[in-house]
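Protein modeling request. Please complete all fields; requests missing the sequence field cannot be processed.
Requester role: graduate student
Desired output: 3D structure, token encoding
Chains: 1
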Amino acid sequence: MQRILIVLMATAVGAAAMGGTAAAAARPHGIPDRVMLQPADLGGEPTGPVEPGLAHPLLPQPCADTPVPQPVASRSLAADYGTGRRYRVYENVARYRPGGAVAYVTALKEQLVRCRAGGDEEGFTALAEDVNGPDSVLFLGTYDEGDRWVAYVAAAVGRYVVVVMVADPTVGAGDPTIANDIAAAAIRRAAAIKA
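Delivered output (195 residues):
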């Protein structure tokens, strides 16, 4: 009886270990440091975590009633940028299953048209498509009754979606040109990775 119990326990422990190994193998890996913006991309400014309670989404979904493809992993960072640290830059890099990154940007472009914010509305407004190559979009996120905005660039790069957001905490006018320039560096970093 004791031998049977020992054999059963050994079998259960072995099965749990095998299941744990399979689960670990199936779990997605994080986003590597080399994919994320570095101080050299930001005029020497150090990067750090995104502050708690950030009001603007780092993986935007303009139409609340329409889902967008979800990533298997993502990572965000923030940094001050510009003379006198006028701007705050945010980056979110999300990894998708094959085809998911392009599907997200395609859905984002469609939603920016269908659920466009105008006038004194809060929401999102597209400025230009394919600004950093195919599957990219430059847009604004408006808030404070449409009087203030943050500038975004989203781009699909292989299995990654790179989102750069630039905010101006002082006057509330994120600069689309700065967002576009920083996004170009972020896209180059993501493109160098074989996902």
